[in-house]
Amino acid sequence: MILKFLSIASQLEKAVLTSPHVGVGAADPVIDRLVDDLWLAHAEIDLSARSEPLRGAAYRYAARLAEVTRGEHAEASALRGLQVQFFDAAYDDMWPGQRRTAGILSRRDES
């Protein structure tokens, strides 16, 4: 579910960043389909995530990405912080009680 959401979000970001129509009111069927797919992937996370932080981070990331596609936020850089929050929440949801250290999983109480 998380990888599906990230795959769609990545495709949507690429489509938005390369589309000449974003923010000018013109509909792009590819982008519209990706936005729909993103919200469906978000719904999967919302239904199956173990933690509220992951649900919230997924929603905020998807909502901001949808806003970028509609031209409500001109800078895609506004997505980066939300993307990081989503990754952190996803990691904590999948491996609670552990943290990343130099690419290695370790228990939080072992540091």
What does this structure look like?
The protein has 111 residues and is mainly α. It is 65% helix and 7% strand. The protein has 4 helices and 2 strands, in the order H-H-H-H-E-E. The radius of gyration is 16 Å and the shape is globular. The mean pLDDT is 83.
Q: What topology emerges from the helices and strands here?
A:
Layout (H helix, E strand, L loop, with lengths): L1 H17 L10 H20 L3 H18 L8 H17 L3 E4 L2 E4 L4
Antiparallel strand pairs: 1-2
Helix pairs in contact: 1-2, 1-3, 2-3, 3-4
Task: For the structure shown, list the relevant keywords.
mainly alpha, single chain, 4 helices, 111 residues
Short description:
With 111 residues, this protein is mainly alpha-helical.
Distance between the termini: 31 Å
| Biggest pleated sheet | 2 strands, antiparallel
Shape: globular
Report the sheet-strand fraction: 5-15%
Number of strands: 2
Please state the average pLDDT score: 83
Low-pLDDT parts are none
| SS-based class | mainly alpha
Percent of residues in helices = 55-70%
Q: Order of SSEs, N→C?
A: HHHHEE
Number of helical regions: 4
Radius of gyration: 16 Å
State the strand order across the main sheet. Answer: 1-2
